Amino acid sequence: MKVLLYISFFFGISWSLSQSPSVLLEVSNLQPKVGEYVTVQMSSNIGSNFELNFPDEFQSGMNVMSGMRQKYVNGKSSTIYYQTLTGFFMEPGSYIFGPVKVKSKKKSYKSNRLQVLVNGTNQKQKKEKKNLAPRTKRPAIFAETKPSKLKIYRGEPVYLQSSVFSKKEFSSIRNYNPYKIEVKYDEFKMNASKELDWIRVAIQGQEYLKLQFEENVIFLNEPGDATIQPFEMVLAGYGSYAVSSEVQKIEVLDLPQERQPLNFSGLVGDFQLIVSLSDSNANANDIVSLAIEIKGLGNLHQMRMPELVLPNSLELYSDPITTDSYRLTKSGFKGSIIYTYPIRVLRDGYIRISPIEISFFNPKNERYKALKSGNLELNSSGKNIKSTQDRALLKKADEIESKAVSKVLKPSNEDLWRNPYVLSALGVLLLLLLFFFRKQKKWFVARDMKEQAFTAPKLSNVQNALEAAIEPSGSIVQSISLMEQCLFTYCSYVLSQDSMRLSRNEIYVLLSNHIAPDKIEEIRHLFTVLDAYRYSKDTDSLSFEGLRDSFNKQVSDLLMH
C-alpha cells in the first residue's frame, strides 16, 4: 500500500512540474562581435505575448518568426509558444538580456537573464563607425522625397523619388496626399506605384524596409528656388502610423543670356542633327520629302519645329508630319523626333536649299552649341553639266576668235588690232555662235522633256489594270504584281502625277487632299496585305482567291467615289 502511495505521489509531482508555468530566453552566441548577427529565441508554455526590452545598442532585424509546438513529458503533452528574431550589436560591451515577461490570467511570468559580451572592432572600423555615428540615428519609420539634383538649369530633368522607410512591413496605405511643387513644371511618371512592394535596404548600417511609392521625372520651367512640399500618408497594419516627408528645395538657374544663339528655342541636353532628302533629282510638280531628325537626350518633349526656309522654286505642299520616337529615362527623354516636310518642285533645274540650323544648351559643360546641316541640293548633276557646257563653250569661242584673228591680222601690221570694223565683226560672230549653241541646247532639252513627260492615266486605264489584276488564269506572284500596279495606277489617276516616283507615305499624304481618310486606310491595308502575300511562305491558292475577290470589290468601290 505504501509503495502505491509513493508511486502515485511521484507521478503527481512530475505532472505538476511538467505543467508549471515556464518562460525561457536563449541567445545563439553569448560572445559575438560588433555587427555579427545573433538569434534570440523566447519560449513559454503559458502564451505568446512576449515582452522584452532590448538594449539600445542592439539593432533587431526584420526576420521575426512566431509559432508553437507540442512537447511531451512523462506521457503528457503541453503546448510551447515561441518567437525567434535576429539582430546585431552596434557597440562593444557587456549587455544583459531579459527577463522576458509573459502575462496570463492577470499574472506575469518572467524568464531567465543572459549576459552577452560583445567584442570590439579594429581601429579602422571604429573610425568608420565614428564618422557614420551622427547619421545612423534614424527613426523607425520615416518618409523621404529625394531629388537626383539640388541645383539645375531651367529645362534640365530631375529624377524624383517618394519613399517610405520602416522597420516593419505595413499591410496597407491610406489618406495619401502627394507632394506639391510651387513653380511651373512638367511631370512624367517612371513607374506606377505599388503599395505593397516593400524591399530590403541597408541605410548606414541599419536594416529597413523601403516602399518606392512614386518615381517621376520632372522638368522645372521657372528659374529660382523650387520648393517641393511634403507628401503625407497613413500606414496601417501594426496600428496606424502617419508619416510625412521633409520639405525639399531645388535651385533652378536661368539659362545664360551671353552667347545665346538667335535660333535657340529652349532645347536643353545633348543632341545631334540629321537632315536628308528623299530624292536627289526631281522634275517640276514632283513631290519630295525633307526629313529633319533631332536625336539625343534631354527635354525632347519641349522641342519646337525647326524653321524651314525654301527658295522660290519650291513650296511646302502640306503640313509637316511629326514622328516621336523617344522614351523616358532618369536623365530625361532619350530618342529622336523626325519632322517630315512634303515639298513640291515648281520648276526644273538645279535647286539649292538653305542649311537647317538648331541650337541647344548643354548643362554638363554649361555652353550653347549650334548645329548646322550641309547644303541640300536637287538636280545637282544638272548644275555640273551646265557648268561643263559653259566652260566648253567659252573654250570653243576662244579658239574661234584666235583663228579669226590669225587670218585677218598680219604680224607686220599691228594697227589692224585697233580697227573698229574688225572688232565689230568678231563680236557679231561670237554672238551668233552663242545664239545657235543655246538654241540647239533648248531644242534637245525640249525634246527630252517631251519624251519624259508623264501622262496622267484615265479612269479606263484604272479599270483595265483592275481587270488584268483579277484575271484568274494568272499565277499568284504575277497577280500580286498586277494588283500593286493597279493600286499605283489608281493613285496616279487621283493625284494626276506618277505615283511610282513617290514613297507610300508620300502617296498617303498627297491622297489626304483628294479622298476621305477611310479610303486612304483601305489603300494602305491593301498594300499591307499584298506585302504579306508576297513575302509569306504559307499562302495557298484558296486564300488567295478570297483576296482577289476582296481586292476587286474594294478597288471597284474606290472607283465609284
Describe the structure.
The chain is an alpha+beta fold. The protein has five domains: 22-123, Immunoglobulin-like, CATH 2.60.40.740; 139-253, Immunoglobulin-like; 269-380, Immunoglobulin-like (Sandwich); 394-441, no CATH class; 459-559, no CATH class. It has nine helices and 30 strands. Strands 10, 12, 15, 16 and 17 form a five-stranded antiparallel beta sheet that branches. Strands 22, 23, 24, 25 and 26 form a five-stranded antiparallel beta sheet that branches. The protein has a four-stranded antiparallel beta sheet with strand order 1-2-5-4, with no helix packed on it. A hairpin with a 3-residue loop joins β19 and β20. The longest helix has 33 residues, at 420-452. The protein is elongated, with a radius of gyration of 44 Å. The model is unreliable at 13-18, 132-136 and 397-412 (pLDDT under 50).
**SS elements, strand count:** 30
Any idea of the CATH class of the largest domain? Mainly Beta
Helical residue percent band:
25-40%
The appropriate CATH architecture of the largest domain is Sandwich
N-C termini distance: 121 Å
Low-confidence stretches: 13-18, 132-136, 397-412
Described by strand count, sense and barrel closure, the largest sheet is: 5 strands, antiparallel
Strand content bin: 35-45%
Derived from helix and strand composition plus strand pairing, the structural class reads alpha+beta
Look up the CATH topology of the largest domain.
Immunoglobulin-like
In DSSP terms (H or I, runs of 4 or more residues), the helix count works out at 9
Average of per-residue pLDDT values: 80
